[in-house]
């Protein structure tokens, strides 16, 4: 038998984390699947579990001059309905799963799950999202890209909890997320792409490119992006083959039951091309 | 009197929408036990030893040693054991049931079963032919000598029925009577199989249909296997037992649509098709079962909706060490119509002839000989339907516009038919359908074995009888079939239910009408084959079907030039089904069938890797959502068949058949490449575009 903890507030939650070895459950939409058992049997959890989905302290969303702060237990649906959540994030969430899943799933859960096919991660990487992580004695802030170490590998200590997702407020000329799924809704991505840019005086001042499901985690290369800054749109369009050759070695997808690596690679490069071709 | 086609609410809408309908999983008798299936973990080989864990009291192992009768499941071809004794022929082949009161205990116990195998090299190549058919028409092979030859290969892949409700039964002993309540299409198939496995008398086996949550052919023969297993367990344990599959178990081990390969060869004379040869292979999986019958239906459809004078047709069922394949809506026809529709189009292009002109020239006309030298006796409305299809879809203009190189748009059209009822003399020789009507005061009860699996049998049959008698539908009773109450009117398959069983019920109702003044009586009718239908199954000669339903699908698509994803923008469908007994029910069947057929053509991917099905749940096996489907415009044509009630012909399967070739042709136009296999996935489209 496993124990299930249902803390009243964040303090109690952090105390439990400090004392017990537990798996944290926010929306539970992945945990339930990963621990499924026969119909009529209880969920097949192999560890004690801690539910955080009733903690109101983790369900708020607010902003200051520089950042938007999203509570770890806020549902994807609520984020979509929020006025202050970044547009790119809202558009990304709309592509995720189904209305029923979005009703209960959370952003922090998608991050904690650290699947290579996690859709929200692509846009969050693109926006340089950070996390607030708390334990009973400590609060730290870490970049998402440093938090995720590989397929389902994260740097979260056993007494720690993701409490907030922190997203810088950014201005883009254009930013979008494109999901390539096997069907138009309620499906896991074969791959995904996010692109954003800003221009001033016809020169690129900011450009960001991220790919999902083509490597162990999101692919984004800031050095390559730097090399594009300062160029005119025409210059970038003229060097499109060079750009794709830069990204080529970073895109190393796999074959699985959903697609194959040749397709994933080709389409990833195509989506980069589409992004550059449509710069205006 | 109102036109019978005018729609009414389905009689089971309320109980289904409110959740009151009882499915197998809702039936929980006191003291019910659960059964888990012990399965082989290897693909091919022999069991050397099985060691079961120590069973707590009240837990049982049920295996081949417990079978009182024959260890063989009675289907059409009997080669599947109820429980394998030694030989393993596919991954997860059932070995035994573990039965007991607590699922938690059962799942521990099942992990404690240790089996020692002697593994053998599995066979996945299509070389072990276990059924071979051949037939000729006209000059056969001779028609090819000295002619220009054009040949192509076509391939289709698995399709999974993906019914909402997985396979399952609950069973109990009622005195000496083994009673099973199941999610099934064919109560009498299960009954006959159980009678044979138990070696019991007919009176001691009773099969009852629970509300069925979808079937699509998947609950034609497979339930006989688990029905037998459960019956054996009931005999041994004598307590109520539930055997219901989980989704993954269901997808890994139940029958699917046969993958196929077709090699077509045409002999050309005067730039026209003079002769056609087909070499058709289907993958039967580890058992033959229904595969021979599926193959024969495919072969009979080898010329599609066209008349070709000279034929040389061969087909094989290949046995492989993969999950056995079986019945699925369309039953061999979807594979063959995809292949022939593509081939005729490709042939026209090779010959430099407008495909439309080429096809219209050979389109079946009333009075033409079928592929097996039967006759298309009834009027063929296809020219009218095609004309309408082209008009409302603006086919020709779009065809021209989308030919532009960078359009990435396409429109495709398929022409097809479906033979209604069992192939050949099956109805007369094998099924011998019987129906019974019981009149009591102002009520009439329909006693037939036809199953409502969502397709509306309960509504359409009550409506049929009420309409003929000109009484209220509430005066007509139709309960789920129970073999203790209903005669064997045959399985709910082969687009036969309304045309054949409904035809008999209509005749019986006419008699009830004449005798209406009598208070209580029973009327029975038995199937009589129209005297003109004669068929030789060995030689594939004669009328393979008493009647044909016809269809035209037009589909418009757009392909994303960066991701190669296909979006279906719109479909137009035209069906001659004789007469709709309820228009909305027919439209539901038509649009649902088209969705399943389109998805077969471009979306649904299933394959195996070394005998292991790779897409084992609804996350990985992609069926279309409402967002993937398009607005569908559907037109029904009346063309009454003399022996169908009000002229009704087959409906259920027809609408699945044309989707794949229509969408494949639309994609061909969008990407300016020829398509030779389905599903036409983005991965395949990329390959086609890159390889020129």
CATH architecture descriptor text of the largest domain in chain A: 2-Layer Sandwich
Judging from the principal axes of the Cα atoms, what is the shape of chain B? globular
Ranges of chain B with pLDDT <50 over ≥5 residues? Answer: none
Mean pLDDT of chain A: 97
Integer-rounded radius of gyration of chain B: 25 Å
Series of secondary-structure elements of chain A, N-terminal to C-terminal: EHEHEEEHHHHHEEHEEEEEEHHHH
Indicate the percent of residues in helices of chain B.
Answer: 25-40%
Q: Name the strands of the widest sheet of chain B in spatial order.
A: 3-5-1-12-9-10-11
Class of the largest domain in chain B in CATH? Alpha Beta
- Based on Cα principal axes, name the global outline of chain A: globular
Structural class of chain B: alpha+beta
From the N-terminal CA to the C-terminal CA of chain A, the straight-line distance is 59 Å
Computed Rg of chain A: 20 Å
Give, in spatial order, the strands making up the sheet with the most strands of chain A.
4-5-10-6-7
The main sheet of chain A comes to: 5 strands, antiparallel
CATH topology descriptor of the largest domain in chain A: Uridine Diphospho-n-acetylenolpyruvylglucosamine Reductase, domain 3
Characterize the largest beta sheet of chain B: strand count, sense, and whether it forms a barrel.
7 strands, mixed
Helix content of chain A: 25-40%
